[in-house]
Amino acid sequence: MGKYIGDENRIRQVLINLIDNSIKFTPKGGNIYLRGYREEDFIILEVEDNGKGIDVDDLPHVKEKFYKGKHAGSKTGIGLSVSDEIIKLHGGKLNVESEVDNFTIIKATLPVQEEDI
Q1: Domain 8-110, what architecture?
Q2: Where are the domains of the chain?
């Protein structure tokens, strides 16, 4: 898949935040999918669920600090904001795609570091 050089603890924190959000917003019996794969010069970490989804009006704001959407179950509203900042500090980007009552996909894209042999 390629090697990524970065702060393992911070990347772990991102994954925990994303998985925690999926668990909070996916009803019992719902599905949560975790994917990791390489796409060109990037490593993609993806969390997808078939939970509540994010309202179209909230979607542009979900990565803002302390933002809580209409159907938020978050106590602080900082999980996605912190995750977004961590991914940016690692040279990547965090994308959120969602449709209410259908799905949410959060994709962290990180640059691959090629190893010198």
Answers
A1: 2-Layer Sandwich (3.30)
A2: 8-110
Spatial distance between the Cα atoms of 104 and 62, rounded to a whole number of angstroms: 12
| pLDDT greater than 80 at residue 8 | yes
Give me the helices (H) in the chain, please.
8-25, 79-89
Residue 17 buriedness (CB in 10 A; 0-12 / 13-18 / 19+): buried
DSSP lists the bridge partners of residue 111 as 42
CA 104 to chain centre: 10
Instruction: Tell me the three state secondary structure of residue 62.
Output: coil
Looking at residue 95, its amino acid is N
Q: What is the pLDDT of residues 59-68, one digit of tens each?
A: 888 888 866 6
Please report how many Cα atoms fall inside a 13 Å half-sphere around the Cα of residue 59, on the Cβ side.
16
Task: Kindly report whether the global pTM for this prediction surpasses the value 0.90.
Answer: no
Beta strand segments in 50-102, E: 93-99
Average pLDDT of the segment spanning 25-31 = 95
